[in-house]
Each structure stands twice: as structure tokens, then as C-alpha cells.
Amino acid sequence: MQTNLERVLEEDAESVAAKPLNWERLAGCRVVVTGAGGFLGGAVVRALLALNRLRKLSSPVQVVAMVRNSVVARTRFASMAGTAGLELVEWDLNSIAVPDLGKVQYVIHAASQASPRFYGSDPVGTLLPNVVGTACLLEVLRRSGDPRGFLFVSSSEVYGSVSGDAVLAETSYGTVDPVSVRACYAESKRMGETMCVAWHHQHGIPACMVRPFHTYGPGLLPQDGRVFADFAFNIIRGENIVMNSDGSARRAFCYVSDAVSGFMTVLLSGKPGMTYNVANPHAELSVMELANLLVSLYPERQLSVDRRMPKTGGEYLQSTYSRLVPDTGKLEALGWKPEVSPEKGFSRMIGAYL
User: Fold this and answer.
1) How far apart are CA 246 and CA 269, in angstroms?
2) In Å, how far are 30, 102, 273 from 139, measured between CA atoms?
3) Of 48, 36, 64, 41, nearest to 268 (Cα)?
4) Which among 288, 290, 292 has a CA at the least distance from the CA of 310?
5) Which residues have a Cβ under 8 Å from the Cβ of 180 and sit 6 or more positions away?
6) Quick one: pLDDT at residue 309?
7) Which structural domains are found in the chain, ordered by start?
8) Least confident among 20-34, 166-180, 192-206, 285-299
9) pLDDT tens digits, 246-271
10) Cα separation of 39 and 256, whole Å?
């Protein structure tokens, strides 16, 4: 019997597949998706397989789901066991080696430790997939003989510390201190983008980059560590939300189906060598506003926001941004637009686990 979580994941995947994109470009192709056992990679895999299920293509797409741990991945995709067009491949992108994946037309590289809780405890494991892994995957596509698209899932962290609170266009760069431990993520994402541009310039690989901002939805894990996930799982467990800051930082929260449709828009219609912000600038909330919103969505639970003194130390290395909101005009010019409000999106996410 299908669980509530599986139903919501399937509906979200089908909502992406229903977008009027040039899906036929993927017909009969082999598409490698890294980080398939994770939140964003897993959502991409489900959206691609929904194309087959909904008969959007003249011939099925073959999805090569690359995972670091096949046992964990089989649990995540348990409801899809035996699905035609899905192939699980175990590979560690920390390895300095090029995997033999045979004929491949597209690569979507979404493997990365995105939560700041890893930056302090595993900076090496955070940066290697974005640097060594990206180089190896670009080589996979170059050697395939039929490279049609490479998508690198980068991050808003590449902007570094920017002055002021203006919205961030794709050229709004600040500084990153390369000798701070937290830089392991931002600097490796920056290098991953540079590699994409280099392989495009020298080898003609049609590589594009997307920069997701704060993306949420079903599929996140309780131990994720980012504030929006912590708050959502507080509600799911029936706990008061614990606020360990003054709650003034402002972020733009994007629901996962909007983000994945943005990724696919860039893969199929983006200009090689270019970067695109992927976020919902219309869903800007302060951290305190987010906490109050989630509590208000479930009044019957009689929960509240518990404000405490900010934490210091520990493995979670906090961002220095006071406001992190992007300009998505470049992506919207390709025909994309976000559709899911925070009220609807967080209700879907939380409801999927209840």
C-alpha cells in the first residue's frame, strides 16, 4: 500500500513532468543523476521516471541513479523497485577515478553535502564531490561520444559575503575567505562551476550551472540540520519550535518541485557555460516569520516558538547573510516561474510525514 509520503513524492514528480518543456530531447537517452539517494537528486530521479510513466516521450529515458550507498538508496526507492528505466550504480565521488558508465548523453550532478552541519565535521567529504567528482563526471560525458547536456547543481553559497541586502543577480559576487573551514562548500562549488566552463570552452561539453537557494519539501531527513528542516520536523513531532537566533535573517524558500522544474528548464533550454539562480523570490520570509507560519498552519497542535539565546560553537557553521534573496529573471526568461507558496509547500511537506 502506498504511504502518504510516497503519494506526495509521486504527485510532485508528476507535476514537474507536466511542465511544457522540450522533454522529447531526453527520449531514448541515458541520464546519469548523482546524489540520487539524497533530497534533490532523488527528486530529479523521480521526475525523470514520471516522464516514462506519463508517456511523455517517444521512447523511455534510462535513468542511471548514482549513489554512494546502494543499501540506503534501495530504501529510498523501495516503492520503485523493479521500475523500468531505473538503474542504481554505487560510486563514491570522493574517488579520483572516472567511472565506466558506457554510453551517456546527459549528466545531472546533484551529489553534495549541502547542510552546514557537515562543513565543520567533514569538510573534505563536503568539497571532494564538487571538485574531484565534477571533473570525473565531465570526463564521463566527454568520453561518451554523444554529450548532449551537463547540469551542475551549484549553490547560492558561491556569492560569498555580499554588502547590503539587495537581491542577488548571477553576477553579484562577494568574498569568501578560503582559509575558513566553512569555505569548503562555497569554494568547491565555485571551482565546480569553473570546471564546467573550462570543459565547455575546451571540449565543447554543453554544461550549465544552477544555483538553488533554500529548497525544502518531502524527502528531507529529520537530521538535515538546516533551519527550515528543523522547524518542519518540530511540527511533525509535535514539538515547540526552538529558535536559537533572533530570527531576523531573511531567506527565500523554494518548494522542491519548483526547484526541479527549474533544473530541467536549464538542462533542456539553458545556454551552455551560463549560471542560473533557482529560487522563489516571492516566498521571502524571516526565520521568525517562518517559525510563526509553521505553528499557525497547525493550531490544533497548540505549539509555540521557544526563543533561546543563540548557540555558539558546535559543528554547524552559520551563514553570515542577513538577507539571501535572488533575482531569478534569467531563469524566468526561459519560461520558468515558481508556483508553490510557503503555506502550500510546507503544508505538503509536513502533511507527507503525518
Assistant:
1) 41
2) 16, 12, 16
3) 48
4) 288
5) none
6) 63
7) 4-353 (3.40.50.720)
8) 166-180
9) 888 899 999 999 999 999 999 999 99
10) 9
Q: Mind listing the pLDDT tens digit for each residue in 44-63?
A: 999 999 999 999 999 999 99
Q: Are 123 and 315 in contact (CB under 8 A)?
A: no
pLDDT higher than 70, residue 321: no
Can you read off the three cell numbers belonging to residue 152?
Answer: 551542475
- Please state, in angstroms and rounded to a whole number, the distance separating the CA atoms of residues 86 and 61: 9
Amino acid letter, 184? C
**Which 3 state secondary structure label does DSSP give 62?**
strand
Cβ-proximal residues to 274 (8 Å cutoff; 6+ apart), any chain: 170, 208, 209, 330
pTM, full prediction: 0.94
Which residue in the block uniquely carries the three cell numbers 527549474? 262
For residue 28 the three cell numbers come to 531514448
Residue 316's pLDDT band, with cuts at 50, 70 and 90, is very low
* Angle at alpha carbon of residue 32, lines to 183 and 115, rounded to 5°: 30
All 3 cell numbers of residue 288?
521568525
Asked whether the beta carbons of 256 and 217 are under 8 A apart, the reply is yes
Which residues have CB under 8 Å from 168's CB, separation 6+? 156, 159, 162, 277, 324, 325, 326, 327
C-alpha cell at 317: 557553521
Q: Are the C-beta atoms of residues 320 and 249 closer than 8 Å to each other?
A: no
* Closest alpha carbon to 153 in 192, 126, 127, 115: 192
Cell numbers for 112? 553534495
User: Three cell numbers at 216?
Assistant: 525544502
